[in-house]
Amino acid sequence: MSIILVLVCSSHSTTAHADREVTEILFNDDQTSGDTTLLSDSAFRRKERKDRDADGLRRLLLGSLGGTTAEMETVQNAGMVFFNDPEGICLYGRRPSQWYSEGFRVPGRTLIEACVDPTAERIARAARDTLTADETPELIVDLFAGSGNLMLHMGQAFQRPVLGIEKDRNVAQLTARNLSLHGTSPSCLRHTDWVHYFTAPCPVQGPCLFVVAPPWQGAFSFERGLDLRRTNPPVLAVLDTIAARSEASRNVAVVQTPLHSDVDAESLRELEAHHRVLHAQPGCLIIDVLGRAPDRHPGAGGEAVLPAMPGPRPRSAS
Ligand SMILES: C[S@@+](CC[C@H](N)C(=O)[O-])C[C@H]1O[C@@H](n2cnc3c(N)ncnc32)[C@H](O)[C@@H]1O
Question: Domain residues of the chain, as ranges?
Answer without folding.
Answer: 2-9+116-305, 16-112
